Amino acid sequence: MTTNGTLVALDKVTRLYRMGDVEVQALRQVSTTIQEGEFVAVMGSSGSGKSTLMNILGCLDRPTSGRYLLWERDVSRLGRADLAEIRNQTLGFVFQNFNLLARTSALENVELPLIYGGLASRKRHRRATEALQRVGLGDRMDHHPNQLSGGQQQRVAIARAIVSDPRLILADEPTGNLDSRTTAEIMGLFAELNQAKMTIVLVTHEVDVAAYASRILWMKDGQVVLDQPHTPSTPLVLSHPDGDQDPGRPEPPSPPDRSTDGSIASLAAQQAHT
Ligand code: ADP
Ligand code: MG
């Protein structure tokens, strides 16, 4: 397989939800690419399509129309079993609520994807141990989730996400349930993984969290209305996505609020009220 460094290529991806007679266009013709090694933060107000985008990127859902190439493979029309296999071998997931099995040790939680992947027990043990050591939990491997702090549980979830050495990590608001100190620790961990060449796409409402990323996508009404590079760990100030469009792009469905100063902080404040 040749590689030009493009990990994700979305071509006019649309996702339509039908609820009775009502149609919701959760994604409208989203076209973008993500290169290996990128750290992308996806922002935008509630209902703008962030989770729908993540579900498609994560092969948990398929586009209604359009094409999704993941690592040069067209995954837009694959069936459940193929998608599950791609998820298991190519992707790692981190969720806001950690999604750990409660009655199961940290080590066993991290081993789980390897069991589905069919790896022998001794190898599973070794790789899960290494992943937990990598996230700083080498001394907590026998603990159950309820014996761990929120930050530690998210570390276990990150270990589980990286244990199969995925091409892409997808994290939907991974710091949404964490205090600011723990958020900084977890984001430091994501930054380390990215420095080790891991590609990461992360949804967040928080400017401080997005500031760890090397690229910001801002979504509105199912479209990416801003796509801007960023130097990780420097303050994040973006021009207003709706006021800063390429001339060739269509007008967004609703006009921006001109009363704001156009910084990403004001965008975040705006979205907190939607
Ligand atoms: P975000 O994650 O940015 O808050 P979502 O991707 O969850 O936004 O939702 C985008 C739009 O699609 C919203 O209008 C939402 O109500 C709608 N939507 C999401 N999931 C479903 C679903 N399973 N069925 C119907 N509509 C949905
Ligand atoms: Mg969401």
Describe this structure in words.
A hairpin with a 2-residue loop joins strand 1 and strand 2. The protein has helices spanning 50-57, 80-90, 106-116, 121-134, 150-162, 180-195, 207-210, 264-272, and strands at residues 6-19, 22-35, 39-44, 65-70, 73-74, 91-95, 168-172, 199-203, 215-220, 223-229. The protein has a single domain, classed as 3-Layer(aba) Sandwich (Rossmann fold). Helix 3 packs parallel to helix 5 (150-162), helix 4 (121-134) packs across helix 5 and helix 5 (150-162) packs parallel to helix 6. It is globular, with a radius of gyration of 19 Å. Mean pLDDT is 89; it is low at 243-262. With 274 residues, it is an alpha/beta fold. The strands form 2 sheets. A 6-stranded mixed beta sheet has the order 6-7-8-3-9-10, with helices on both faces. A 4-stranded antiparallel beta sheet has the order 2-1-4-5, with helices on one face. The chain contains 8 helices and 10 strands.
Keywords:
10 strands, alpha/beta, 26% strand, 274 residues, 31% helix, 4-stranded antiparallel sheet, binds adenosine-5'-diphosphate, globular, 8 helices, 6-stranded mixed sheet, binds magnesium ion, Rossmann fold, single chain
What is the global morphology?
A: globular
Instruction: Name the hetero compounds present.
Output: adenosine-5'-diphosphate, magnesium ion
Rg of Cα set: 19 Å
Stretches with pLDDT under 50, minimum 5 residues? 243-262
Strand content: 25-35%
The number of helical segments is 8
Oligomer: single chain
Task: Please report the total strand number as a whole number.
Answer: 10
By secondary-structure content and strand pairing, the structural class works out as: alpha/beta
Distance between the termini: 45 Å
CATH superfamily membership: P-loop containing nucleotide triphosphate hydrolases
Q: What's the CATH topology name?
A: Rossmann fold
- The CATH architecture: 3-Layer(aba) Sandwich
Strand order of the largest sheet: 6-7-8-3-9-10
